[in-house]
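Re: weekly structure request thread

Next one in the queue (310 aa):
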Amino acid sequence: MKSENDTLVSEFLFQSFSSFHEHKLTLFVLFLTLYLLTLIGNVIIVTIISIDHHLHIPMYFFLSMLSTSETVYTLVIVPQMLASLVGSSQTISLAGCATQMFFFITLAINNCFLLTAMGYDRYVAICNPLRYIVIMNKRVCIQLVWGSCSIGLLVAIIQISSVFRLPFCDREVAHYFCDIRPVMKLSCADTSLHDLINFFISSLVIVVPMGLVFISYVLIISTILKIASAEGRKKAFATCASHLTVVIIHYGCASIAYLKPKSENTRDQDQLISVTYTIFTPLLNPVVYTLRNKEVKDALHRALSKKSLA
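Done, posted below.
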């Protein structure tokens, strides 16, 4: 006889976009296109920042780290989702599911806190410009990136240990990847405590960095408004516009996905919401920071000019 802690299933089956069966090919083409654009865009950003010495400053160091994290984040989820849309196997072992969830949680939280570090960088640059080089030195930048990653790793270990200690009786995951809520729904046991812990942790890792970014921008805006010249205010706002755009959409999507009541949306609605932060949000990084950022565009033009002259 199996004890309560024994797992009753050995693998999970993703339901993916089963309700959109007649549109699967269209979704595959759309998601593949967006995925390739995301990969290409993030690779370009990381490459340009690494080769152009004009961008060897904290702001772009954090951006390159965010682009790298977003790239790995999409690699963990999107290829399997694309495979399921064209009829490949939609099963995943428990170990594979735990691994996917581990990397997803680690990188998602890492991205949240990297955006916070970028907000702090903008705060120091605008509110304390004379001490910027001293405050945002290389050691501090590395510590902020390491801190972001460490928080993600710690939360992922706690969450994985909590979820995969449960016994599972059902094997059909109502999702296209191993997210916490859909997997916990497959458990035979009462998950009320786990749900509460999950909501508490989700709230902390979304609300805390979001709150810190909000405080940074309150201080930034109050400082900008004190600038005497209109040109100076415009330039200061321009340095923050790209980051603020990404922050609003990133935290907005995360809040809708993880801070809503458990049973508020249907499975299809949950999957469509998930598409925003697994497909569309990672694409924001290269799009916003190349189309709205003059320094990145200038660096790209310099790189292309050198290549054409070579």
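The radius of gyration is 21 Å. Residues 1-5 have pLDDT under 50 and may be disordered.
Next request, please.
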